[in-house]
Amino acid sequence: MKNDPYPGRDLLLNRRRREAILHYRELHEVSALIAAEETTSAAVTDAVLDRIARLDGRLGAFSQVLADSARREAADRDADTRRGRSRGPLHGVPVAVKDLYEVAGTPATAGTVALAEHIADADSTAVERLRAAGAVVVGKLKMSEGAFAAHHPQLGTPKNPWGDDLWIGASSSGNAAATAAGLCYAGLGSDTGGSIRFPAAAAGLSGIKPTWGRVSRAGMVGFAESLDCAGPIARSVYDAALVFDQISGPDPRDPVTLGRRRPRMVDACERYEEAFTGVRIGIDPAFMDVCDNETRATLDNAITVLEGLGATFVEVTLPSVLDAVADWTPACAVEAAVVHRRQYEATPDRYDTQLRELVATGLAMPATDYQAMLRRRHDFTGRMRDAMSGIDALLLQVTGTAAPTAKYLAEIGVGPVWRDTIMLATCPINTAGLPAVTLPGLPTDAGAPVGFQLVGAHDAEERLVSLAYGFQAHTDYHRRHPAAYA
To answer: Model pTM greater than 0.90?
Structure first.
């Protein structure tokens, strides 16, 4: 190399190598590299788009890739950087959004064929806020049809990067697949009964399901609007907190958010030691008892780590969740019927069987039955509030079966086993409107991810994020990545 006619080649090659391994870095690390001008938004975006082009044919995470607009956004971010201007903590970093968020000029299909012509005139509030904070939107992500359980067969189901046979969760499945495989640095998802928590747990990621109403739903295609919560899926709790800080807060376009302050959960991460002073975390043995051995091992490990940080665990008795679980699907049926009625009545054959039957059920349900469910929901919410009054957080599994396979879920069907092992610890949290943070814990013996959740009282996201960040500061489960996409 002494007579190298290209004296800058080593520097260029080193930079390219650095950019080539950026795909598994955390969002905040990439943002810092862009801010320090050690790389550019254009270079990172090109690298991500290249990975999508090479890998998504196998993974199937994206419903739409917005390559041209992403490159324009990245160029704008780099121009800002050269002028010494940063738009925010997401400046220049590629992210993607679930395909129920409106992105101007693109269809918001909500995982359906029926809404393929639903072209958005403007960005949803959450997407608008991501861009205002500097994020580059590289695409829209596949999801189950209408945000219910099954994916439309014409659109396909994303693969789990940790194993093609493993469940990728529902309905923010594309979010988890793309983020875990290094095809974006965070995904904007939604959760109506577990749809942030299931995919995050299945793919070894961190997610925030907020208190109902803390993030605007304006510009979202709803599923069950009294339960729907918008939130992030990311590689770490810190990254999820960064995104959440940008998208949350009052929005006149969605009146249920009015009066709610914008949180500063990144600050909660940075002072996590304070959160462990005198903290009491509840466990309900009845929930632990339905877990298989590997899920129980994950929870026991989480208890050990959190106790080492100063947490005290206390036994609590939660109210029966059986009605909340049983009522979840029929309540969603009524609210999904409100969302889809016009399109369903015009073109019912464009819906696949599961969502079509759900909407039909909702349209046929007597108002008195729905009102009875609402009464049970209010009763359950009050009982949950009482049960949690003496604790700061609640430790629960996400699913009682560790790393379930798609074959296993097909075998058990939607029955008692599904209720007790899949839905037991998630949809009741939506019923009560409570926040939860999901994060990866001790994996299975085969190396598959297993997640757990910390649940809090209304508007307790900051405390939950502090506790979760403390866990991740003393473990490295969130730094594991699927070798197949390395």
So the answer is: yes
